[in-house]
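User: Hi! I'm working on a homework problem where we have to compare a predicted structure to a textbook description. Could you give me the structure for the chain below?
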Amino acid sequence: MSSRLIGVGVGPGDPELVTVKGVNALRAAQVVVVPVMDTGERGRAEATVLHYVGAEKVVRVVFALNERTDRARREAAWDAAGERVAALLREHGSVAFATIGDPNVYSTFTYLAQTVGDLVPGTVVETVPGITAMQDLAARSGAVLTEGTEPLTLVPVTAGAAVLKDALNGPGTVVAYKFGRQAAEVAEALRETGRLDDAVWGSALGLPEESVRAAAELDGEPLPYLSTLIAPARREGGRGGKL
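Assistant: Happy to help. Predicted structure tokens:
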């Protein structure tokens, strides 16, 4: 029988935002893998998973999630992580991998699935969608992501502030991920494009240290890496005008 690797989105941090299907997938899998930085602290995915499955079922696998400069070290860590998960699949047959947000949106799972597929040919890869940070931030802040025919653009600021600025100069709502270390550049891009006043940012959503604030309060100081920004579309006209 083919091995099964299931990427389960467990949301941005609030355990109540895991879907029923996600909980069922975590409980049905023989092993639940959670990604851990080499510093060893518990991450959001692990903390969320432990609300629904026992610790004896959880396997912590180290990923170089905080390595962005040493490519060789990062790739070595990936290879080791892939080998570890491949070994678990050979032993157990059904392995779930818990990832914050959604497994198909800027997720560690994408790369893991490719690596494991090469190591264990015939592995069936499945995903269970999860609530994303932009959805949670929209709910917590009251920001409307889209109306009518408006586009929605999602930008990882790790690609550079210039990419964000190009998106802000375009139509529709712009969402920025992973912008904490470039908060000053993000604030400047919002000011230059006239998108500062309505924008909102959030970090640690659903956790005790949660912060949801107006982007106009950005003072240039670095923010947590997993900060999220929503710059709503410029909207004119009355209710239903864009339907």
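For your comparison, note the following. The first strand starts at residue 4 and ends at 9. The chain has seven helices and ten strands. Good luck with the assignment!
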